[in-house]
Specification:
Blueprint (H helix, E strand, L loop, with lengths): L4 H23 L6 H10 L5 E2 H8 L3 H13 L3 E6 L2 E9 L1 H44 L16
């Protein structure tokens, strides 16, 4: 039987906070925030990303993201360029230094999480798939599994 929504929300919130605290403890050694790490990770695909995509990935409102990107530019970790496909948009890219920093951070976080991976190895992929399904259902992107209502729809 499924948990009540408030129990599931509490469990997800507690898990997310503990995970962020653990990652932040690693990133503190490099004076890096979880949000900056998320931005650097997204940009590591080698494609430029617009501010909306970065805000979504970093879980930040636009003004906070702008301030963060400004800081990353000042640290020579990212740079901005006009989108060649739409000159009204700005794309953010990793600098070579930003790519090196991202690799260093990824290695350190992976090493810290290695012991957790041992306990989650069998269930990790299933957990990830379930969380992706839940997120998609809550966003209204799928019609199977957890529900068919779009977020915020009137009853």
């Amino acid at each position: 039987m499924a948990r009540r929504p408030q129990e599931l929300l509490h469990l997800l919130t507690r898990t997310e906070r503990l995970a962020v605290r653990r990652v932040q403890s690693v990133l503190d050694e490099f004076a890096c925030s979880v949000e900056a790490w998320r931005v650097l990770d997204l940009l590591s695909d080698g494609q430029g990303h617009n501010m909306s995509a970065l805000a979504d990935r970093a879980c930040l409102p636009a003004p906070s993201l702008t301030k963060l990107v400004d800081q990353l530019v000042d640290q020579n970790l990212v740079y901005r360029r006009v989108d060649p496909a739409d000159r009204r948009r700005i794309l953010v890219h990793l600098t070579p230094r930003g790519g090196q920093r991202r690799q260093q951070l990824a290695r350190e976080v992976r090493a810290d999480w290695a012991e957790l991976d041992l306990t989650l190895t069998e269930d990790g992929e299933q957990l990830e798939a379930l969380l992706e399904r839940l997120a998609a259902a809550l966003a209204g992107d799928v019609t199977t599994g957890f529900g068919e209502r779009a977020v915020g729809r009137a009853r």
